[in-house]
Amino acid sequence: MSSPFVIAAIRDVAPTLSEPYPQELRRLIDSLYDYSKFKISLSQNEEIARYHICAILAIERLKPQFNFQDPVLDKAPVPTKMVAQLLNIFQNHFQVKSSKPTPVSTPKKKIDDKKLKVPTPSPSPSKRKPGRPPGSPNKLTLRQKLEKASGDKSTSSSNSTPQNSPKKQIISDEFLQKTPKKNTQSQPNTPTKSILKFNGNKTGPTSNYSSPTKYMKLLSASEITALCNKFQLDTDVTQNIIETFKQYCRKVSNEWILLCGLIINCYFVIHHKVINEQLGSKTSTIKAMFSLQNGGLMLEQVNTSVNIAHNLIAYNKWFKQLKIKHGVSLESQSIASTTGNMISPEVQFHSAQKQKAYHDWLQKIKTELIQKSLDSSSNTSANTFL
């Protein structure tokens, strides 16, 4: 039976592949994982993506046999740029190991023993004449070498870089005409940074995989629903989470922070009795969300997402109705608690002097209110008598 980590890795990198997964694929991932664990050492941040890297390699290798689709890179627990780097490392290592030619025994003509015992006399060595040996290509001159090198550079640059627009070309030509040439020798082009995409057959950049820019693509409703179902949320709650996510997704740096916070807040409201009775229930819920999310968040970020999402939905109608439905009091969610009021439960007085001053001030306010109510009632009765 395959490890649950293998199943989770396949589910992330091949979301369209239906279960049960082929046995050959699972065995290949296990073997690649064991081999890479023994041969390739990774850092602590990169180690969590080892199963996903092995799954991508296995899917790419078995693609012709099972007609798999291209694996997805943005579902790994690390950024896609790191995934591309790790794929190149793994593929280069596997190619180096497998590209060593095995010695093949070629048939040789049997040599007679008598010829070995009686060597034939070699002719007297003659002085070699100047020049290249017969059959060798003619030696290129220095000018021909320079022309060939410049031609290779121009062809490679024309193939790799797009042509300039006509407007930019005119500006560059005018600039070159006005600028005096200080040095006619051409300077080497500085390499530009580019994100390499993994290729199953070659180590160079290709376009077989999805671009890393898709990491910022909004989550679909099906993905949000699948994550809500793992926490056993009702359909109406899931629908409210999807609508709220679409409303506030542009206001956070990472969409997964908003989604994790929304689901955890709803889970805390629905199961508030169990969470209040059992110690450590909130921590276990946050850790469960940390293991299920695919946004590359750290545990501290998942913990922070609870407060971020709560500040956004604290006064939404559907969230208040959810609290009323499950018997959660709304006293701590009054509007005064968000205006910096000193009476909110978040502020506690620790010294006896401050507590006494607070109670005296509160008693004074109550006395004044009672006195005003009595005065108003007496004035009303006097007017009625007259």
TrEMBL record:
A Gene Ontology molecular function term of the record: DNA binding
Superkingdom, taxonomy of origin: Eukaryota
Region of interest called Disordered, as start-end residue ranges on this chain: 97-211
Domain ORC6 first cyclin-like stretches: 10-97
Pfam family, one: ORC6
Main location class: nucleus
Annotated localization: Nucleus
Key words, A-Z: DNA replication, DNA-binding, Nucleus
Skewed-composition ranges (Low complexity): 97-106, 153-167
Polar residues composition bias: residue spans: 182-193, 200-211
One GO CC annotation: nuclear origin of replication recognition complex
Biological processes annotated in GO: DNA replication
Family: Belongs to the ORC6 family.
Protein name in UniProt: Origin recognition complex subunit 6
Annotated source species: Wickerhamomyces ciferrii (strain ATCC 14091 / BCRC 22168 / CBS 111 / JCM 3599 / NBRC 0793 / NRRL Y-1031 F-60-10) (Yeast)
